[in-house]
Amino acid sequence: MAPIGTEWLLFAGQIATLIVLLGVGHVFLGDYMARVYTGTKHLKVERGFYRVIGANGESEQSWGAYLRSVLAFSVIGVLIVYLFQRIQTWLPWALGLPQPSEPLSFNTAVSFVTNTNWQSYSPDTTLGYSVQLVALAVQNFVSAAVGIAVAIALIRGFMYRRTGTIGNFWVDLTRGVLRILLPISVIAAVILIAGGVIQNFAGFQHVTTIAGSTATVPGGPVASQEAIKELGTNGGGFFNVNSAHPFENPNAWTNLFEIFLLLLIPFALPRTFGKMVGDRRQGVAIVATMAIFWLISNLLLAWAELSASGTAPQLAGGAMEGKDDRFGVVASTIFGSSTTLTSTGAVNSMHDSYTALGGAVTLSDMMLGEVAPGGVGAGMYGILMLAIIAVFVAGLMVGRTPEYLGKKIGPREMKLASLYILTTPALVLLGTGLSFAIPAVRADLEKTSIWNPGPHGFSEVLYAFTSAANNNGSAFAGITANTVWLNTALGVVMFLGRFVPIVFVLALAGSLAQQDKVPATAGTLPTHRPQFVGLMIGTTLLVTALTYFPVLALGPLAEGLK
Amino acid sequence: MLIISVAFAAAHMHALERMEFPVLDIIYVLAILAVAAVVLLVAKGVEKL
Asked: What is the pTM for the complete model shown?
């Protein structure tokens, strides 16, 4: 470990590098995505795909039709991933591994289709290459594309006038995969291979060590998974320890590159938003809100881990338990903040070993609702929902009808935004509460799943449900989640946490698209100024604090104050 | 209600663990369809807002 002063310098250097890379990258990608989703021409391969699935690429859908397409596509995805796992034994490249159990297959299928990538299992010793590539990697692409598609549909709600349609899901999905995710993933995979990430079909190799014992060295097509794992804010690792594994994340610069990848699309989408609604300043306000949360979280987490109390952390110069010496404290905390704020869930350090307050930061990152900058697409539509609530609150304060980008925010719009905000906390609190309220479940949790008694054990379960409901996927490593209860309950929570909010987002998009635009007047709240950024930050913090403070007090805060 | 149902099912998890192929597979496939039906019901409710 470097001295504390050097660690803070490293922190500043890495944050500055990321800001420069993202500052340039989000402009190019944001503008490109706007062109992709507003273009009228279809590629030849896209037209062929529409013909195969029987979709009409030229027609637009109502919000109901768009939702049914999203849901049908996703349910079929869950069933296919479930089936692939259950027949793993008979698939090629199964590596001699048996099929996962039914509850685990259910959990994994829902997890990858909902872009959560929660893993109740050790991937390298549970799933063969066929399942990893044909089932899971495919979902890494399409689940990310679904998220972007829903965000674009909501943006169209603000763009369109009196149409009642919000685009075509099949066109958005196809373009997202073929024109955005695939090309960037190929380039990113090659860069990762250059950095030392493995890409082979070698299976397990048994080697004799210098000491004379035998070690098993895993192989696998890792780089291709790693690229989309980060780019699509999926997070499901090829290996059990995820990006802490040297074959997934070999050194400091691949670590920084992976953080850049997972932040790229979420920070680029506000630019896309600004361009599509015809006012780039609106996108700047959104991206500024996201960036402020990201910076604050990074500062808090680095401070919590660098200033940890206790003899061992003081001697080591920071809380090093659960962190890889290759990365040290700050490269771990920057990854930790970025992954919990983007719904990625990949980890390069074990969040369970963070200090109590550090754990509270990662939990709070997710509890913000994954909006800073959030998952691909999900972050964008999440923060637009918060923007609507902020506009409404401001409207109440000055006594005017709230408007956002020329669209009136009436009772229907507010009901939808409120239901959106309430859904995830309800799932987190219900899931955690039921886990402890049902005697048989609680007994099983305490006997099998929770490794640490007291507030920390409570935090482990709270973290699991927070991660699942927000479609994050990261875990406090101390919990054993491969049980019937956790696999089933977390699976249900992941599914509802993904698709129920999407219902409200698409309904809102449909409602906005039906409206005409009202011209801005002297009484219209400017939504591109720092004042509105402050209002959005305040709204987000208030909603989060009021919802989660009691449960945080029972877990990490109680542990930190002990 | 669905979560509560799942909770009660999990309370009898040892009974679930004893079930043999393909009973549990059928249960989980039905669970997938049931959760999707809940989302559609929510959408139906939203139309009436």
From this structure: 0.93
